[in-house]
TrEMBL record:
Domain RCK N-terminal: 1-117
Protein name: Trk system potassium uptake protein TrkA
Transmembrane intervals: none
MF terms (GO), sorted A to Z: monoatomic cation transmembrane transporter activity
Section covered of the full-length record: 1 to 139 of 217
Domain of life: Bacteria
GO annotation terms (biological process): potassium ion transport
Amino acid sequence: MGQFAVIGLGRFGSAASLELMRLGHSVIGVDINAKIVNQIADQLTLAAVADATDEHALKDLNITACDAALVAMGESLEASILCVLLLKSMDIKEIWVKATSKPHHTILSRIGVSRIIHPEEEMGMKVAQSLSYPMVNQY
Ligand code: ATP
């Protein structure tokens, strides 16, 4: 099974990391907030309090060995971009990133991340498709 790093364990990052665990993978979760890390620690392979913009901290956690990384720090553009650059310098090929604004999206696409995720927009579309489905069947 795969080894994943999830950086930022807010609502999005924690849901993704728990689902990866449920699917049988190994997950290293990182968040700067100790309270958040403590809440999820016993459910992940490893959960650590660290600043994801600190290269040494990421290396100490063996993030370099991960097959893929999910960067889920939506609010801080600076932390998100810096962290992506570090992950790229560690030669992690599969980097998926949550984006929260147009400028954030533009920068991420320029630096070549594998996938840019817009949770609200993507979920809105999925909900509309599910909502439309029973209606279509009525005709
Ligand atoms: P969500 O919607 O998933 O709850 P959000 O878009 O509101 O999240 P943020 O508030 O940016 O996202 O943060 C997500 C998580 O990332 C938070 O738990 C926060 O503590 C963590 N985080 C923010 N900056 C850093 C950093 N430099 N290093 C590690 N974790 C960080």
